[in-house]
Design brief:
heterodimer; A: alpha+beta; Aldehyde Oxidoreductase, domain 3; 8-stranded mixed beta sheet; 8 strands; 38% strand; B: alpha+beta; Ubiquitin-like (UB roll); 2 helices; 22% helix; 32% strand; globular
């Protein structure tokens, strides 16, 4: 793996404290005038009378990290973004917990929300990550992204 | 004939009953290998799947250039 390719994966749920720490870490970067965050949370979907209690995420990690690196490089080339961070859970995340965190920062808010939306869409479409939805009776189904 | 290592992910590991296997095949293209896999696992006919080599998704017309091939169901991150 290339040295500058970052590991996006976090074991289990992403703690809200990690989000707060991540925001705090940007206070030193005084060229930034705005942040946009996307936080994905595991939803208790109901399917045929059963309720999702958790999602178990697996991935081809090396490729997912590289795909996210390429998505970042393209976004930096297209939008005037200062800073971008991507985190995704691996393993089990219970309903109500966070599994996905994308954080972009720029001098001005213009286009920032649009950039974030594109990056989130690209990660969902291109990163080899697989979610297994676990129901309350311990049966499961494989999640499929709907765009 | 070339020996290739296939890694199955997510739903496909369940359908094939394997997470990894070695197969020897005459297939030279991604599309031909997909056809071989459907012959081997008829359940794959009903699902959408993609192959990747060298950490990138490969098109059916691409030549197989790597001995390690990832077999992916639809992605569902996020």
């Amino acid at each position: 793996m290339k040295a500058n390719v970052k590991n996006i994966f976090v074991e289990g749920a992403i703690a809200p404290e990690k989000i707060a720490q991540s925001i705090a870490a940007h206070q030193a970067k005084t060229g930034i005038g705005g942040h946009c965050l996307f936080l994905g949370q595991v939803r208790a979907d109901e399917v045929a009378g059963k309720t999702v209690t958790a999602i178990d995420f697996s991935a081809q990690r090396e490729m997912a990290n590289q795909v996210c690196h390429q998505i970042k490089e393209k976004a930096f080339a297209k939008y005037p973004i200062h800073c971008m961070h991507i985190y995704h859970s691996i393993g089990t995340v219970k309903t109500g917990e966070l599994c996905f965190f994308v954080f972009v920062s720029a001098a001005h808010r213009t286009d920032l929300a649009q950039a974030l939306d594109k990056i989130v869409q690209q990660i969902k479409a291109e990163a080899p990550i697989f979610g297994k939805e676990i129901f309350d009776d311990q049966s499961h189904q494989w999640k499929e992204n709907k765009y | 004939m070339t020996q290739r290592t296939l890694t199955y992910y997510g739903k496909l590991a369940e359908l094939t009953g394997k997470s990894k296997e070695e197969i020897t095949t005459e297939a030279h293209t991604v599309g031909a290998l997909k056809d071989r896999l459907i012959d081997r696992y008829p359940a794959l006919k009903k699902v959408s799947f993609k192959l990747a080599q060298g950490q990138a998704i490969a098109d059916d017309k691409d030549l197989l250039t790597d001995t390690n091939i990832d077999v992916f169901p639809p992605f569902s991150g996020g």
